[in-house]
Design brief:
Helix content is 15%, strand content 41%. It has 271 residues and is an alpha+beta fold. It has a single domain, classed as outer membrane lipoprotein receptor (LolB), chain A. The strands form two sheets. Strands 6-5-4-3-2-1-15-14-11-10-9-8-7 form a 13-stranded antiparallel sheet. The radius of gyration is 19 Å and the shape is globular. It starts with 8 loop residues before the first helix and ends in an 18-residue tail after the last strand. The N terminus is likely disordered.
Length: 271
């Protein structure tokens, strides 16, 4: 599934303990309750989006610069649900010609760094994406390599903030903090729909704590009577004025894909 502080984890944990130790008992209880509620909401979203097995879809990527100039790409996407770990994702570019054949493979993990590879046909080689580079832009888009990994519950700690209306629907607002010290973000703020628990909006804050990007989801449809998927994902970079739109088409779930369809050794042979 597309299931989405920057010091070492030891330092973060130590600072948290010191901060909590200085709080009155009532404040400690309130903080603990907010953390538990945030985790509960994220876990409910994950539970409702479990069991789809695998998916195939086609999509269009529209990149816009700060002046509104556009470039377009056509892609194919495959995903595989993995028991007791993160999902696997394969993206293949079909158009335009200069990126045709480029393939990106991600093995997301619930704990520890994800494994990611990029095949560049011009170089005829597979490049491994190292952890330090995962905050970089994916193929010139406003989505980072980190954004494309499945958003496993275990990859964050949580804090419930409030309830509010978003686009006429009641939402839970939850703050989440990446566990990975090499994440490109200090925190994210996610709006979850109260009825379906699907994410409707996500704000990303950079390593300085400033608002960097906002991701909004549009045109949700339900597949196989259970699973919600958006037709459009719009990522806006507030610091550069650039944006990227992903337009999803032809969703298919439970199509029979397996581990062999996500073989990193065959990336350069994928067509």
């Amino acid at each position: 599934m597309n299931k989405q502080l920057l010091h070492s984890q030891f330092t973060v944990g130590a600072l948290t303990v010191l901060a909590f130790a200085s709080l009155p008992t009532g404040s400690l209880l309130a903080a603990s309750k907010e953390e538990a509620r945030g985790l509960e909401i994220a876990s409910e979203w994950d539970k409702r989006d479990t069991g789809w097995k695998d998916s195939r879809t086609t999509l269009r990527m529209v990149l816009r610069n700060r002046h509104g100039d556009e470039s377009r790409r056509e892609l194919r996407n495959r995903s595989l649900e993995v028991a007791d770990d993160g999902d696997k994702l394969l993206i293949v570019f079909d158009q335009p010609r200069d990126v045709s054949g480029t393939a990106f493979l991600t093995f997301t993990h619930q704990e520890g760094p994800d494994d990611q590879w990029l095949y560049l046909p011009a170089l005829k080689r597979v490049k491994r994406i190292v952890s330090n580079n995962k905050s970089g832009p994916f193929m010139g888009s406003e989505f980072s390599y980190e954004d494309l990994a499945s958003q496993e519950v275990e990859k964050y700690t949580y804090k419930y903030l409030r309830e509010e209306s978003l686009n006429g629907r009641d939402s839970f607002v939850v703050e989440r903090y990446p566990v990975d010290p090499k994440s490109g973000y200090t925190k994210q703020i996610v709006w979850f729909d109260q009825e379906t628990y699907r994410p409707e909006k996500n704000e990303f804050y950079d390593r300085k704590g400033d608002l960097l990007k906002t991701l909004t989801y549009k045109g949700y449809k339900q597949y196989n009577g259970k699973y919600w998927r958006p037709d459009e994902m719009f990522m806006e970079n507030h610091q550069t004025g650039k944006s990227t739109v992903l337009l999803w088409e032809d969703y298919e779930l439970d199509t029979g894909l397996d581990e062999r369809d996500f073989d990193r050794n065959s990336l350069q042979r994928i067509r």
